[in-house]
Specification:
about 220 residues, disordered N terminus, four-stranded antiparallel β-sheet, alpha+beta
Amino acid sequence: MHLSLLQRSAALRYLLFTALLLLCQPVHAIKFTLDAHRYPPAKCVWNAAHPGALVIVTANIGPGEYQRIDIEILDSGPQRNVYLSKKAVSGEKRFAITAHSEEDVGVCFRNYLDPGVPIEAKSRSRIIDLDVDIGADAVDYNAIANQESLSGLETEMRKLEGVVKEIVDEMEYLKKREERFQTTNISTNTRVQSFAWLTILSLVGLGLWQIFHLRAFFKRKYLID
């Protein structure tokens, strides 16, 4: 009985430790200064996202005269799918998208300098505070708690449920990728094997043709009977 209680206590501590580890999610936040130009290059911040994942982008753009900030959210696929494009963004803005591909999602900024800016004011920049939440991090559990009248413990359990679901989805995604890689590997091995047999048969056929050709040549020259 005493041993059973110790085992239950150890299991409970292990579950609590695992829950704390699962709740320690990385924070995708960054703060940087973006210089203004007449033809500015894009400043992009990329994050990995799986298909169907909710992505919440919160951008807090500082003040700045004679400047215009444009924002664009796209993925890194060959087709460069654009999820959102906004011009003249200022202040704190919040955008929500859903990823449609297995590529990374990028948040790109361009800081345009107004054509009529005075010469003495050409060196300009603005500060951008960017926060990107993906998957379970993007869910507003406080709003859910207020809507469903959840207690603090129930809210934490709901967060943990979302994190566990995200981990399960991640494992399913990795499993599908492994199956796809295995299928590709088998197909490649089959093609290599087929090419090897074709090469061997071609060499054997070419050797036999050379033998018969030389035999016919020597017979014409009366070198052999």
